[in-house]
């Protein structure tokens, strides 16, 4: 079970509601006069678009940091939380940096994760005027646009960060704003129709610019369901993943209800970049002047910071929606502090992520979904792009897949020959199998990534079409069907001959007895029509005589199971009455503790009991014996016979003696070192007696 931390900070009772502020404040203006100022882009410089392929990175992709502006529009407690996630890039004037630093330190901000970027600004809405980060082929770059507010300092910030990072900046001659732009990182983007209103309703020009500078195509331009002047998409919707969109939902009694439903229905019937309709999640908002800015959240690596409203029930429901849509993420509820949130202006408007310039991008575009046409194995093709320039870890490019809810298996991916492209194969399913899977990659710089980002918590899913294997013409022949074994180490072979017109998989060969070993065969093995597979079986036991014992050798195939009989001479399982345990017993003095000799009845096949008759020392008189039981003593098959051995004489030097245990089957003799187990006593010359 995965536990996800959820933190909901108490709502500040002093947080103003939307109806307590005039329109110019709710609509991100600094004054009523500014609202009527039509000057835009005083310092904007248009450039040619990127010559390489642009990729506009999504908010839910890996981020190296987050941008904020001081004086703040967010609580310092949130700055502290952000500093525990990644680097905080704080835009601040030189004259206010010490003040910002003191404020952050007092709030417990990790100052090792704060970088001050000195520049003048006009407002804290860094989402709207901050740089749009892209990759041009494999290199980071920034796209600048004409900011839709008359604020020259804010409008310069893209250039400030282009100089800070020393990366190219491209000037896209469109009036736009970051709050009205969301993208999936794979070429799809969403804005509402404010982007047309602010660009002379020249839709062709807007779409061409978005494609050429940002790689956005298709570009979904929707109505503004809020019907509010701000007309920012982040006030009512949000990409949570390439195939997931969050859209606010109002009560049916609200006059704007139908417009929200119209937008939701559009995405529910529009294909995402992976070829199927978006999964649309709805977050309930009460409408009117009740504060509920839930779509205006910030996704930062594996954490989602959600601005809280004024109603605890709606707050809890919003948290639950994010948890459902984004399994494995930490969902953190955040209040607005002294600055306060608005329904049209909250946490997302006042922050902006900085993409990880060294991220690993996993781009499995041809996602398998729905019902797939039957094939014996199904390819999963993905690109892996290491923006760090590091080599990919070839043994860590994998497809993880689960068949019918079973344990996840892995398929290694290999290069296809196309740039950055690899393929792995899902195998082993049946007709109508339900298959979950995700793609994983790693590079030598330590970057790792999966698609989907939720991995096994919310994987890709498809169903294999029903399939009836064709009935092969001909037979699968096994010859001989009986193997005879009369001695230990003996090898026997049988042939599997495919006389059908179809390939047959030999899944495994499973002997019933552990004494049988397979030699030189690896399974599963695909046996082509007309091909013969030779299977070698080795029998590991002792020689003997008498009747034969049958054992089954199971041959598992895609045409059904077959049986080969292994006939083992009964007493070939016998190895007699044998010595076990330590081969050498040592004594230094008479009176030493006895040493124990041990023998076992190993007539496993014939099941003969052994009768121990006597124990005799051979040619010397150094030892005495105490059997565990009165002789003659019967030892049943697999049982043991124990004998305590005492030394009772003193000798000088080093002496070796032997003794024999006589039975009615075979004798056991403890003899010289070169010939078997030895019982000996010793003491060095001149130091007293010994045996």
Write the layout of secondary structure elements.
Elements: E1 6-8, H1 23-26, H2 32-35, E2 54-56, E3 63-69, H3 76-83, E4 87-92, H4 97-106, E5 114-118, H5 126-129, E6 132-136, E7 139-147, H6 152-155, H7 157-165, E8 169-176, E9 182-183, E10 189-192, H8 194-197, H9 203-214, E11 219-222, E12 237-241, E13 244-249, H10 257-268, E14 279-284, E15 298-300, E16 303-307, H11 312-325, E17 330-334, E18 352-355, E19 360-363, E20 370-372, E21 378-386, E22 398-403, E23 409-412, E24 414-415, E25 421-426, E26 434-442, E27 448-451, E28 460-464, E29 476-479, E30 482-485, E31 490-498, E32 504-511, E33 516-519, E34 525-527, E35 532-539, E36 548-557, E37 562-569, E38 574-580, E39 584-587, E40 595-603, E41 610-617, E42 623-627, E43 633-635, E44 640-647, E45 653-657, E46 659-663, E47 668-670, E48 678-683
Parallel strand pairs: 1-17, 3-4, 4-5, 7-8, 10-11, 13-14, 16-17, 20-28, 30-37, 39-48
Antiparallel strand pairs: 2-6, 3-18, 6-7, 9-10, 12-13, 15-16, 19-21, 21-25, 22-23, 22-26, 24-25, 26-27, 26-28, 29-31, 31-35, 32-34, 32-36, 33-35, 36-37, 38-40, 40-44, 41-43, 41-46, 42-44, 45-48, 46-47
């Amino acid at each position: 079970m995965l536990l996800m931390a959820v933190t909901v900070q108490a709502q500040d009772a002093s947080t103003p509601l939307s109806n307590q502020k005039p329109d110019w404040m709710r609509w991100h203006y600094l004054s009523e006069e500014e609202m009527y100022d039509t000057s835009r882009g005083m310092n904007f410089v248009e450039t040619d678009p990127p010559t390489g392929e642009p990729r506009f990175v999504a908010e839910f992709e890996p981020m190296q940091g987050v941008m904020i502006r001081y004086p703040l529009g967010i609580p310092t407690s949130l700055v502290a939380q952000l500093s525990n996630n990644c680097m905080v890039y704080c835009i601040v004037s030189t004259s206010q940096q010490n003040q910002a630093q003191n404020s952050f330190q007092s709030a417990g901000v990790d100052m090792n994760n704060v970088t001050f970027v000195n520049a003048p600004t006009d407002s804290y809405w860094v989402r709207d005027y901050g740089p749009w980060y892209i990759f041009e082929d494999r290199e980071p770059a920034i796209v600048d646009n004409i900011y839709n507010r008359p604020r020259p300092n804010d409008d310069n910030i893209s250039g400030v960060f282009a100089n800070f990072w020393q990366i190219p900046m491209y000037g896209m001659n469109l009036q736009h704003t970051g709050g009205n732009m969301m993208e999936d990182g794979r070429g799809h983007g969403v804005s509402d129709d404010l982007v047309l209103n602010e660009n002379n309703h020249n839709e062709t020009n807007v779409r061409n610019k978005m494609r050429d500078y940002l790689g956005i195509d298709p570009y979904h331009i929707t109505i503004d369901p809020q019907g509010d002047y701000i007309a920012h998409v982040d006030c009512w919707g949000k990409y949570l993943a390439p195939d997931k969109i969050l859209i606010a939902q109002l009560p049916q009694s609200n006059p704007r209800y139908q417009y929200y439903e119209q937008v939701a229905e559009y995405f529910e019937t529009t294909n995402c970049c992976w070829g199927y309709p978006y999964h649309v999640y709805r977050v309930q908002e009460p409408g009117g002047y009740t504060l509920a800015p839930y779509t205006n959240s910030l996704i930062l690596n594996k954490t989602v910071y959600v601005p809280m409203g004024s109603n605890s029930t709606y707050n809890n429901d919003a948290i639950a929606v994010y948890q459902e849509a984004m399994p494995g993420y930490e969902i953190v509820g955040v209040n607005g502090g002294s600055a306060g949130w608005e329904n049209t202006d909250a946490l997302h408007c006042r922050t902006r992520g900085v993409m990880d310039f060294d991220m690993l991008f996993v781009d499995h575009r041809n996602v398998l979904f729905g019902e797939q046409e039957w094939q014996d194995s199904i390819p999963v093709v993905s690109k892996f792009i290491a923006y760090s320039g590091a080599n990919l870890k070839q043994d860590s490019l994998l497809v993880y897949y689960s068949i019918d809810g079973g344990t996840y298996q892995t398929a290694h991916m290999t290069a296809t020959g196309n740039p950055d492209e690899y393929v792995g194969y899902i195998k082993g399913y049946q007709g109508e199998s339900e298959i979950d899977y995700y793609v994983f990659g790693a590079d030598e710089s330590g970057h790792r990534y999966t698609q989907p980002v939720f991995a096994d918590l919310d994987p890709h899913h498809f169903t294999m079409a029903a399939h009836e294997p064709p009935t092969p013409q001909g037979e699968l022949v096994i010859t001989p069907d009986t193997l005879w074994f009369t001695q230990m180490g003996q090898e026997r072979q049988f042939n599997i001959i495919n006389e059908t017109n179809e390939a047959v998989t030999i899944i495994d060969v499973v002997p019933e007895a552990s004494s049988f070993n397979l030699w030189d065969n690896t399974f599963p093995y695909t046996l082509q029509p007309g091909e013969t597979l030779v299977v070698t079986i080795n029998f590991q036991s002792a020689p003997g005589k008498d009747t034969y014992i049958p054992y089954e050798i199971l041959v598992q195939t895609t045409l059904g199971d077959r049986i080969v009989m292994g006939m083992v001479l009964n007493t070939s399982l016998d190895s007699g009455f044998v010595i076990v345990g330590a081969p050498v017993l040592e004594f230094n003095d008479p009176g030493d503790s006895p040493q124990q000799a041990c023998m076992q009845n190993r007539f496993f096949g014939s099941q003969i009991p052994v009768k121990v008759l006597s124990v005799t020392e051979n040619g010397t008189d150094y030892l005495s014996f105490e059997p565990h039981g009165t002789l003659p003593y019967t030892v049943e098959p697999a049982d043991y016979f124990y004998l305590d051995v005492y030394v009772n004489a003193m000798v000088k030097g080093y002496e070796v003696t032997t003794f024999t245990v006589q039975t009615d089957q075979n004798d056991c003799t403890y003899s010289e070192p070169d010939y078997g187990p030895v019982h000996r006593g010793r003491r060095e010359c001149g130091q007293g007696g010994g045996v």
